[in-house]
Amino acid sequence: MDVEKRTTPAGDVAVDPLPQAPDSADPAENDRSEALLAAVNEARAQGRTLWIRGRGQRGFIGRSAAAARAEGSAVSLSLENHRGIVRHEPTELFVTVRAGTPVDELQTALASEGQMLPFEAPSHGGGSIGGAIACGLSGPRRPFAGAARDHLLGCRFINGRGECLSVGGEVMKNVAGYDLSRLHAGAYGTLGVLLEVSLKVVPVPAASVTIVLAQGSDAEAIAAVQPRLRQPWPITGVAIIDSCTYIRLEGAEPAVAAARVSLGGDTLVDADAFWSSLRELEHGFFAGARDADSPSADTLWRLALPPQAPTLSTRLGGRWLNDWAGALRWYRGGASADTVFETAAAAGGHAICCSPSLLPAHAFQPLSAGMQALQARVKASLDPEHLFNPSRFIV
């Protein structure tokens, strides 16, 4: 199996699965599974660790590749050319796609059939679907449609023993037991090299409208929106920014129209662009926060909290943007990592740093001893030699 090796400016050897080449019209010709498997086994034989990358758009989350290289001689393994839709069955509501496929490319293909990914996967400027799954990323629909892992039906991956495994399937299952494919959602590539994922898809809503309600403060807005979520309204997105509540209604036209009347407020013009700016972190709130070349003076944090948790601005200060009806809170400020972690834990949640300039040790919320032991056992089962993504995640 031909594997191209190149040397990076830092002196590391980077292994790419086959030379860069134009995508073929035949999806089978974009299958780099054998080359990727060969690269994994070569790294094992050489005693080298692997830094798995898709299209290089998610390095701002958690620990970066530079951190891994600082701790060891990690080899870069690119899945960028391992792309294409393997199987799409619109009537069965699923799609199987290679991990290196750009999210935008997948969304375009689904839209041509009037379908979409229910968890609203972000692209982050050309990122891959494998990267979105590996980082466990979901958009504004997440509280109402489920997380990325909830729609992951199955996957193919290479484990740390150099074995290519298939787990799960291509349809919704009702068997007992834990679905092993879901372990890869949010594992940041530490459990194996994702080759393919099978995902549930849903029809694009017939109607969509976003309304804006003015509130006195973010705290009042978060409290006021909770009773609205218990109503039988087709809500698929709630964001609270600068004391304004943005509520997206989607579904059948009569249901959307009725909810629109009940909720009142003003209609948001160009609502698609607004929700896209939240999903893709392109809203003005995020400006400069992910730029490693010219980092912002404040740090960007992603806090997952119970939606009814109080606002944390008194403790942390800074600026805030609230998504997921208050369950996802973005914070930009100068509080120390320890203070952010302690505050998030006290509120019943956890925090992740999304600024590439922060020290690698402060990227993820510290785990309890019990959770660390559980993580270690899972890691030992799937990657006993600690081959994949050293220092990328906690395990």
Keywords:
single chain, 395 residues, alpha+beta, Uridine Diphospho-n-acetylenolpyruvylglucosamine Reductase, domain 3, five-stranded antiparallel sheet, four-stranded mixed sheet, 25% helix
Q: How would a crystallographer describe the biggest sheet?
A: 5 strands, antiparallel
What's the architecture of the largest domain in CATH terms?
2-Layer Sandwich
Q: Which percent range describes the beta-strand content?
A: 15-25%
Average of pLDDT: 87
User: Can you list the strand order of the major beta sheet?
Assistant: 5-6-10-8-9
In CATH, what is the class of the largest domain?
Answer: Alpha Beta
Could you write a compact summary of the structure shown?
This protein has 395 residues and is α+β, with helices and mostly antiparallel strands.
Question: What report would you give on this structure?
Answer:
- The protein has helices at residues 33-46, 65-71, 103-111, 129-134, 142-145, 218-229, 253-263, 271-279, 313-316, 337-346, 369-382; strands at 4-7, 13-16, 50-53, 75-78, 85-89, 94-98, 115-116, 152-158, 164-168, 193-200, 202-203, 207-214, 235-241, 244-251, 266-267, 299-304, 319-323, 328-333, 350-353.
- With 395 residues, it is an alpha+beta fold.
- The protein folds into two domains: 32-203 and 374-382, Uridine Diphospho-n-acetylenolpyruvylglucosamine Reductase, domain 3, CATH 3.30.465; 206-356, no CATH class.
- The two termini are 31 Å apart.
